[in-house]
Amino acid sequence: MSDESNTLLSLYRTMVTVRKFETLAGELFAAGKIPGFIHLSIGQEGSSVGVCSILRPDDYLITTHRGHGHVIAKGGDLKRMVAELMGRKTGYCKGKGGSMHIADFSLGILGANGVVAGGFPIITGAGLSIKLRKTEQVAVCFFGDGASNRGPFHEALNMAAIWKLPILFVCENNCYASTTKTSYACSIIDIANRAKGYGIPGVSVDGNDVLAVRHAAAEAVGRARQGEGPTLLENKTYRRRGHFEGDPQRYRDQAEVVEWEQKNDPISRFTTILMKKKILTKDLEREIAAKIEADLKEAVEFAEQSEWPKPEEALEDLFVNP
Amino acid sequence: MSERIISCSAAIAEVLTEEMTRDERIFIIGEDLVYHGGIFGQFKGLPEKFPGRVIDTPISETCIVGAGLGAALTGMRPLVDMHFADFVTCAMDEIANQSAKIRYMFGGQVKVPLVIWAPDGAGLGAAAHHSQSLESWFVHTPGLKVVVPSEPADVKGLLTASLRDDDPIIFFQHKKLFAKMGPVPEGEYVIPLGKAAVKRQGKDVTILTYGSGYYLTIEAVKELAGLGIEAEVIDLRTLKPLDFKTIAESLKKTYRAVVVHEACLTGGFGAELVARISSELFDYLDAPVLRVATKDVPIPFSPPLEKFVLPSVEDIVKAVRQVTYC
């Protein structure tokens, strides 16, 4: 199989992994096995996987409360992720973070963040650090349409623009900020147009077309690596689940959700392309699904068999030098 | 170690020159640094000595602190200049939600070697938005270390320690201290965080203070000596971690305490000190512990108004006389 076919299959595998992980997380949550709140990215896999597919292992990424997909796409370990969601000691954060605070600094994942727009200032610092250390790394900030309405968006894009920082700002416009429609909360249709205010490139793409996302991200990352500064990339997609699991979703008609699911699912669309190219077959599709399901089953078993943290461990990890 | 009399600003420039030479990961970021040398001139000469490592920013406090944090997470050791401590409000998420919590909520995966420099305090007619003392907000935020030096030598020793520490630190220095002169050791000088200093020995009462309160206290102590009261003065220097051991040792000798700080009274750090003393040293107390602090209003502009709300030498003398029944 050619390199290109391998790459495409790898994208497919990762998208299906994200989908199945999120579906599983929803089931575990409904079964009462995950405490707190979780926010799922089902239907947004084209964005997370498309962007992360062009990143190097040493590139940085920061994400949001809806961040499982980004962590997986950057190489996050499924066992440690499930364990963290379930509050176990073996989780990424020893059970101190949960769904909204998964990080893996060894993979450049600077963390999911519970504050909407919380990633902008931090990624600016990561970009500045790259510039000061004179490496060719790139820093990616995933955020939603809702975050683009907060002040840190402005400060970060301006700062990144004046210093030409190697940052890719990725807006996942999924049509809703919590319960509020983007069309209500934003005075423009394309959030990428806000880039004009900072004199940087702004690109809107079909976020459910993983190849379009990958192509746009590759251009932006290429520019960033060459010292040409930041880009605002808007991946237009749709949030199929509620804001959080259990959200009664009074703000939308379920027919809208069904329509996106049936007509514009990023994995179905990509599957069709791969089948046409004969890169994917029904057999291979089943084989990939089975492998991912086995991995996830193993991750859940790992988490369920893992110890709970000892209560007094709540007092550890605050300071390096207490 | 030899000492000379130099200003606090000179001590700061000395520390930063030494530390930035020693560790190339240290850089300074904030507003008005390169041409102005910092709003109080404390960074003068550094932009020329360390080109590219003293970075002027737009007026974007949220991103200034966030940029420091992001750099700290990715291998650098930034010093963030807040300009005025009052502007921390524009970066509260980055300080309280992010810098303070990132190491903990990610299970100790990462160090956050970040110093946030926040010139604070009143007495300059700078009014309500440029005069506050906000240390108790940050003491109340687990994950931050809070340093409040008073004398130039303390600034040198504590700033050096802060720049070498791997945890996020908010470093409050009173604006009036930049010009203060004092003996400062030459060469490397480190004061460990979490060590208070007994700056005057006394047997009759312990005065617990920090920052600008120290200067009021040493004036008051002279008057008290005239009344035959020998006060022990403890400069706390860091509020978090707090050196309660030194406090306890002193109180077990004097049985009386007064807290002096420039932050306003209600919910101030004095309240925490009084609470801990009453719960841990109750049997040693011969009098209630009193607090001398700013009155609970924003800092007013007009000199007579400002003077009225700030703590005074007379307030300290009065409080000490009350607890010593003199």
Relevant terms:
heterodimer; A: about 325 residues; alpha/beta; Rossmann fold; 5-stranded parallel sheet; two-stranded antiparallel sheet; 7 strands; about 45% helix; globular; B: about 325 residues; 7-stranded mixed sheet; 5-stranded mixed sheet; about 35% helix
Task: Walk me through the structure.
The complex is a heterodimer of chains A (322) and B (326). Chain A is of the alpha/beta class and 322 residues long. Chain A has helices at residues 3-30, 45-52, 68-73, 78-85, 119-133, 151-162, 182-185, 210-225, 254-263, 266-276, 282-305; strands at 60-62, 139-144, 167-173, 176-177, 180-181, 202-206, 231-236. Chain A has one domain: Thiamin diphosphate (ThDP)-binding fold, Pyr/PP domains (Rossmann fold), CATH 3.40.50. In chain A, helix 1 packs antiparallel against helix 10 and helix 1 crosses helix 11. Chain A is globular. Helices cover 36% and strands 21% of the residues of chain B. In chain B, helix 3 runs parallel beside helix 4 (92-99). The longest helix of chain B is centred in the first third of the chain and has 15 residues, at 8-22.
Quick synopsis:
The complex is a heterodimer of chains A (322) and B (326). With 322 residues, chain A is of the alpha/beta class. Helices cover 44% and strands 10% of the residues of chain A.
Unreliable stretches of chain B (pLDDT < 50, length at least 5) are none
Oligomer: heterodimer
Number of strands of chain B: 14
Count of helical regions of chain A: 11
What's the SSE blueprint?
The complex is a heterodimer of chains A (322) and B (326).
Chain A: H1 3-30, H2 45-52, E1 60-62, H3 68-73, H4 78-85, H5 119-133, E2 139-144, H6 151-162, E3 167-173, E4 176-177, E5 180-181, H7 182-185, E6 202-206, H8 210-225, E7 231-236, H9 254-263, H10 266-276, H11 282-305
Parallel strand pairs in A: 1-2, 2-3, 3-7, 6-7
Antiparallel strand pairs in A: 4-5
Helix pairs in contact in A: 1-2, 1-10, 1-11, 2-8, 4-11, 5-6
Chain B: E1 3-7, H1 8-22, E2 26-30, H2 46-49, E3 54-56, H3 61-73, E4 77-81, H4 92-99, H5 102-105, E5 115-120, H6 135-139, E6 145-147, H7 152-164, E7 169-174, E8 181-185, E9 197-200, E10 205-209, H8 213-226, E11 231-235, E12 238-240, H9 244-254, E13 257-264, H10 269-280, E14 290-294, H11 303-309, H12 313-323
Parallel strand pairs in B: 2-3, 2-4, 4-5, 5-7, 6-7, 10-11, 10-13, 13-14
Antiparallel strand pairs in B: 1-8, 6-12, 9-11
Helix pairs in contact in B: 1-7, 3-4, 8-12
